[in-house]
Amino acid sequence: MAGLTSSTIGRKYAMALSAIFLLIFLVMHLTVNLLSVFGEDAYNNASQFMGYNPLIQFVMQPVLIFAVVFHFVMGFVLEIKNQKARPVKYESNNPSHNSTWMSRNMIISGAVVLAFIFLHMYDFWFHEMNYKYVDGLPIEESRFWGDLHAKFADAWRVIIYIISFILLGLHLGHGFQSSFQSIGARHPKYTPVIMALGKWYSILIPAGFIFIAIYHFVTQ
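^ Succinate dehydrogenase / fumarate reductase cytochrome b subunit, sequence as received from the core. Prediction below:
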């Protein structure tokens, strides 16, 4: 890992791999959460499996936490190094024509998304850890759907989630194709496909989470 992150290229490669891992996780996370729309039992069963399976809890969960921290820390490190490498801006530069607004401000959207992740962990992950390992309460299969439903009873929380997922979508819009480009997946034949997939991914994934939040709010 030290060798991989010792150079700029290595850091970009490592960041891209962590991003692809997180892209896969978002699909899985959305799939489980969508079950809450179709039925309480389906969501409760899936959540119990995810919440008490040793492989998921003690292997996959630490890997996920590491990937999140590594991805965002590495993003900030790369941004700082890029700024130091070019302390004086070019005299002739037209950012709006050379790149998109999001590609120039990934660090901003990333910081907002990171703040949202902490809120999301406070809402669900810390609550779950406290329930299982601090209070040591027994397994209650029917509690998961009720906990999720109750979180979206307040309009302000739903609004925060909606805004955060819109920013996540903008972040993904550039980050998806950038991740594949960083690992060398760039070819005249395949790049347009990757760009199209990235566009739809950055729309559908946030839209799915927004739909879930709104659904639980209006069905209180």
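The domain at 8-85+106-219 is CATH 1.20.1300.10 (3 helical TM bundles of succinate and fumarate reductases).
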